Q: What sequence folds into this?
């Protein structure tokens, strides 16, 4: 189970629709605000259940214990004034540390396409620093909480790469899959190999060589073409 939370209009529903419902990114502009929790079941190498929660959701009114979930993704609109979303994120982190210490905590700094490159990098850095400072103000114990930040956008492949990295932590057989891909590359002299879920274009495993953004993007574009025209053949 993956919990998708964040303030209103941060982009949670857009992420869910683009990844798992094939919605074109430009059409997400017309999505209605999420008023109740929407659960999306998606069957891939591991069965997924994604809870897309309204912006008012907290750990107290979630309706389920955090210990039921394997990962929590908090979505921040990187153009937002950071005080309110960071306060809400800190609330989720403290609740997760208390009630579900094994929960994977991920932060998607979203809508990265809205800012120039320099501003994007600076905002991304500032958000990480402010979250760390707020946690340190509460207790020095939170300094060791594993918190992963990702810069994402529905208009490029960064969202799929980041969500793929979240999934990797949830797949028990990942080391075996990676070793199989290493053997495949060695025997076929292939420079790179991915194991993709074709429909969502999320990669479930890759070989030991570094993931190059350009190569990953090329694979995603090819799969998009396959999904669009594969039925004709």
A:
């Amino acid at each position: 189970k993956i919990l998708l939370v964040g303030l209103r209009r941060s982009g949670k529903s857009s992420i869910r629709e683009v990844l798992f419902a094939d919605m074109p990114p430009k059409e997400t502009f017309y999505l209605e605000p999420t008023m109740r929790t929407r659960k999306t079941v998606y069957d891939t190498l591991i069965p997924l259940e994604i809870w897309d929660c309204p912006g008012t959701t907290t750990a107290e009114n979630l309706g389920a214990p955090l210990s039921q979930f394997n990962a929590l993704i908090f979505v921040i609109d990187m153009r937002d004034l950071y005080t309110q979303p960071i306060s809400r994120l800190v609330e989720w982190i403290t609740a997760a540390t208390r009630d579900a210490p094994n929960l994977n905590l991920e932060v998607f700094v979203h809508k990265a396409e809205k800012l120039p490159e320099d501003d994007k990098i600076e905002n991304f850095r500032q958000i990480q620093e402010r979250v760390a400072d707020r946690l340190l103000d509460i207790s020095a114990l939170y300094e060791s909480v594993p918190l992963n930040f990702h810069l994402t956008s529905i208009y490029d492949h960064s969202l799929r790469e980041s969500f793929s990295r979240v999934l990797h932590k949830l797949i028990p057989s990942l080391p075996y899959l990676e070793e199989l891909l290493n053997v495949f590359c060695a025997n076929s002299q292939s420079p790179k190999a991915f194991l993709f879920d074709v429909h969502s274009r999320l990669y479930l495993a890759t070989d030991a060589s570094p993931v190059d953004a350009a190569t990953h993007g090329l694979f995603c574009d090819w799969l998009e073409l396959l999904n669009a025209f594969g039925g004709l053949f």
In short: The longest strand covers residues 71-77. The chain has two domains: 2-170, 174-231. The helical segments are 12-20, 83-99, 117-138, 158-168, 174-188, 213-229.
